[in-house]
Structures are given as C-alpha cells and as structure tokens.
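Fold this sequence, please.
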Amino acid sequence: MEAESAGNVAQKSERECCTIEALLNAARRSGAVPMPAFSGSTDMAFLSALFVVVVASLALIKVFRRFTKAELENIPGPPAESFIRGVFPKYFNANGWAYHRYLWGTYGAVIRLKGMFGENALYVHDPKALHHIFVKDQHIFLQSPTVAAAYGLFFGPGLLGSAGKRHKKQRQLLNPAFSTGNMRQMTPMIYDVIHKMESSVMAQLNNGEKEVDMLSWMTRTTLEIIGQCGFGHSFDDLGGKYIDNPFSSNLGQIVPVSLKLVFLRLYALHHLIKIGSPAFRRLMIAISPFPALREARDIADSLHRSALEIFEVKRKALFDGDKETTQQFTQGRDILSILMKLNMEAPEEDKISDEELYGQIATFTFAGMDTTANALGRALWALANHPSAQKRIRAEIRQALQEAGGDIPYDTLMALPYLDAICRETLRLYPVAWQMIRKPTEDIMLPLSRPVKGLDGSDINEVFVPKGATVFCGIQGSNMNVETWGPDAHEWKPERWFDLPKTLTSAEIPGIYSNLLTFSAGNRACIGYKLSQLEMKAILAVVINRFEFQPSQEIFWRMTSIVTPVPAQGNQIHPKLPLMVKLASD
C-alpha cells in the first residue's frame, strides 16, 4: 500500500512538474517571464520570477482539481466573502470566537466551508463522523500533508513530522518512556523544578501584592520540566531574571512565522519540498520574494543545531562513561535516555536513526512547552475569575499536603477529585489547539450521528468526501457541543465532571482523554498527554497552595494555531497573562 502510494505521488509530482515546465515555457514565449540572462541582477530577477510562477502553478493545479469536484455543494455553509479568500479571513481570524459560535448555531456539526479560489472544504464536529476520521477510518483520513511538511521542515523526522511505518516505529519505541511507572519516577524531579519557580515568584512579590505575568512563569517552568524530564538538560535556572534561551525563543517564533506563510503552507509547501535537491531548495528560499521563508529557514537551522548539540553531549557522555550520565541512562530518568537505551536494545529492523532520535528533542519541546503553559495559564485565569472554585481547590490541595507531609505523591495527586475536575473542564472549554486537519487518501462515505438537511431539502445521513478534500475537525466545537454536553456546554463548570450527561457517555467521542479531542485520538494522539497532566496538576498544586490569584486586566485569547492570551488593551502581539498575585492566607 505505501509503496503504491509512493509511486502515485511520484507520478503525480512528475505530471505537475511537466505542467509547470509547460507553463514556464509558454510564459517565457509570451514575455510574461523573462528569459534567463546569465548576469547577476537579471539572473536573480529571473529566479525570483521562476519561484513565484512555480508556487502559483502548484496552487492553480491544486485549486483546479478541487474546483472540479462539487460533491460537497449540497452541504449547508456560510457564503464566501470573496472567491479568492473564501471564508478564511473570518474562519482563521484571531478574534474568530463569535464567528465559530455563529457557525455552530446556524449550520450545526457538519458545515461546508468555501476556501481559497472556491475550494470546497468540510468542517465537522459530529461525534460519529469524528470517530470514523480518527479511529475506524484513520488509515484513510491522514494528517494534512501541508501540516506534516511544516513539522518536518522545522523539527526534522521526529514524531510530528513522520508518517506511515516511520511514525509507527517511532511511536512503538517511545511508548514505554511515557508509561505511568515512568511518570511516577519523574514526579520528584518535576517538583524540584516547580519549587524553583515558586521561590522566584515569592521573591518577586516581596510579601506584598503585585501584578505578575504568569504565562511567562508557566512557559519557563514547562520548558525546564521538558528539559530535565525529556533530555536530562537544563534550559533555565528559573531565577528572577530571565536569560533568553535561543532554543525556546525559536520555538516561540514558529507559529507567528507560520501565520505569515498561510498561502504557501496550504497550497504549495508540500510540493515545493519535493522539487530538486536540498541545496536547490535552499537557493530557491534565498532568492524567493517571501522574507518569512528565510525566517522559517533560520529557525529550522537553529533548532537543528540546538537539538543536535543536546543529543551529542548526551551520547558522548554515555560512551565516554560519565558516571552521573551513565547512571541516569541506566535508571531511565529522562525520556531521551530511555529512548536511546531502547533503540540500542531493539532488533535492527526496529531501530531508528540518530536523525530521528534528535528530531524528537525539538518535537517534544514544541509539543509540550507552549501547549501546557497556555493550558495552565487558562486554569489560573479561570480560577482568578472564580474565587469560590479557587478557595475549594486550595482546601483540597492543603489537606493532601498535610496528609503527605510534603509534596503530594503521584498517585494521590492524580486522584484529587476537584483538581482533576478543574483540569478536565479547563481543557474541555479552552483547548489550546481548536482544530485538526485531515485529508482522505481516497473517496469515502462519512456517516453522521444526526442527519443534516441538504440545500436541496434532502436528509443527509452520510457525507461523500472526495479524495484530497480538506476536512477541518473541530476540537472546540466537539468539546462545546450542546447536543452531547448539555445546554450549559459553553460555561466553565468543574462540577459537571462529577455527573456527566448520558448524551455524552453514549456519544463515543474518540478522544484518548475524558471524551475530549483536546489530546487528539487514534494513532496520532498526543503521546505525552500523561506527562502534560502530571505537569499541570503538580504546578497547580504548588502555586494554588502558595498564592492567591485575582484578575488584573481584561484578557483577550487569540484564536491562533495555539490559543494564547494578550492584554485586551495595548500591544496584542506578544503573549502575556498579567494577574494580581499575593501570598495565600493560611
């Protein structure tokens, strides 16, 4: 199957390249594109024009293929703002929350969206449809090649940027590193990091009340936890003064730079990475008229160097017999050590390459740093705005601390009922990523749990999804679906987790965590969700016990790839979560 798919892809690329070449020749003959004159400035101008024509040709080929398929036309959906941009300006708007609620309320759980140049796309949060996409037919509904290409360029062949057999092999090798037993072993290390942050925030308060950017502290703390637990590496001493770390800074620039390249990512990137040699592609980036491409290249290069440095230091220490590192390796205290050990012991056919090993470093850091930090920021913001819930959880935490006589042990921490409810409710109502994109590799019928009324008046019980169609899977829509969660689905109510509605338990939503799609589902579900939960609960246990939080400024949560907070007034570029913080009373 994979060999056949690869052959089809090769033939497809060859046909596209031939089409592009024909377009270029025609353009040159007509004078639309200059003939190459082998002199410096003219040659660069030609190469830039060539780059633009290649990108435009790939986009037009893609759009033509979509435009000829009208199978989704009978599905109701909002009118396009324009033929060129469709509904995307509203759908992908950073302030798009109201628009998405309008879509759900007006069109329901299955919606046709007009994309760029009239392309038909499908939005779904119907439970049965999602079950087929992520579980039953997950071998057909694959991660969008545009997303996979972007991950691969930034992180290399790690878990996010891999597919097929390579992804399966990596995941099988990594699974033991994220076991409950290993989470239990990591807990003391995680508390050590959190207490450093706690001490620095206390020093910042100086026994008073102060406005503190808690997102900054959450990001620094989660980065250091990933460094220590993931790779046995320290990124940040968590002192009062933050020293900029190039690795984390570059990771933080991935989403902003990616937003500048939306057109390229959606319509050309996964084709461009197959054209020519790496050296040729670098030349094309160097002369392209898109500065953001060069920003992306520089970020990817820097991440690669940093990850390789961390990997080489650990490997050298292991083979040189460094006592502390060797002990850490044999005891399996960090994920990279466990992975290296398992890889050494694996049969030859199950081993992964060094490139795949150090590709996990940037992958795990990106996947776990901003996501967990922003989820923690949401939880603190919600508790600041719900003082009774904050008081209740503090009482539960303090009782557990008293019974433990110190830091709350792993099993006790994970079982605290109200802390668990707060985490689940925050991740339900405020998922950090609000959608996932899938594309079917063949024509397929997608069954629905409830019929949709077609534009022709017919009841649609299953949707014909053509091969290659873009399917937007609504995480937020599923998590806030009133038909499954009840009429109060749009409210933050931790208590709902003590008595879930039958409509939810019978819906068979395909999430790996609590009937939620927050951590995805199927073979591409978040492998580190247990570590994320441990981080979230341990950090909340420490900071809620020590500090009291109140609102400071109005916060606007931007609906970007990763949902981030900014003050509603002033600069809304850099993520920030200011809260009033003081020591909690005994």
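Confidence is low (pLDDT under 50) at residues 1-43. The first helix runs from residue 2 to 30.
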